[in-house]
Amino acid sequence: MADPIKVLLVDDHQVVRRGLRTFLEVQDDIEVVGEAADGAEGVARAEELHPDIVLMDVKMPGMDGVEALRKLRELDNPARVLIVTSFTEQRTVVPALRAGAAGYVYKDVDPDALAGAIRSVHAGHILLQPEVADALLSQEEANGGHGRGGSLTEREREVLGLIADGRSNREIARALVLSEKTVKTHVSNILMKLDLADRTQAALWAVRHGAAG
Question: Is 84:23 a contact under the CB 8 Å cutoff?
Fold first, then answer.
């Protein structure tokens, strides 16, 4: 049996953390390895505990979720961050996604859907609601977008299309009969050539430029 997905809970409300822990601890493939009450503590615990997934609140006292996300990226922490929020406004969720979040769910999410979201993000997928994807694309348009798709090789375009389909590196490797290491190299080259920060932006670029499958 595969190792369980290690999850860190970061939320300033103890009741929320307790509820999340209570549900997640009954999942055979998910293990809650720790908790934090604000962004700064969350960053420190992520560095200490090496979780696979961080469930991160957005609005917290002191360091909020977006700032904590940026700090984790600065530290090159490999944990994938899933935003858990009660705020549905795009002005709250979009900055978190642009800071590197792999997706988001609302605090009233169905428990089974939350477990599914954790598994999906752990597999390398990106969770975006259509209206938020549209908002991100609109921002790219307003900023002039990213335009150097002509510099991509044919193989990099294939990889980009699969990223846009939400495929993980492992799934891309299987689909293209490549090693995961080779896929990681292609992904890095794509991000560098298109001047993009992460897979979320790459997926959005693919949709915007018609490179998605």
Answer: no
Which stretch of DSSP H or E encloses residue 46?
helix 39-49
The confidence score (pLDDT) of residue 14 equals 93
Query: Minimal CA–CA distance to 43: which of 1, 8, 82?
Result: 8
Q: What is the DSSP string of 141-196?
A: HHTT----GGGS-HHHHHHHHHHHTT--HHHHHHHHT--HHHHHHHHHHHHHHHT-
**Contact by Cβ (8 Å): 56, 68:** yes
Instruction: State the residue for tokens 């103890």.
Output: 14
pLDDT, tens digit (0-9, with 9 covering 90-100), for 131-183:
566 666 565 555 555 555 557 888 998 998 888 877 888 889 999 999 999 99
User: What dihedral angle (degrees, nearest 10) is formed by the CA atoms of 73, 78, 79, 82?
Assistant: 60
Distance, C-alpha 122 to centroid of its chain: 9
Collapse the DSSP code of 13 into the 3-class scheme (helix H, G, I; strand E, B; otherwise coil) and give the result.
coil
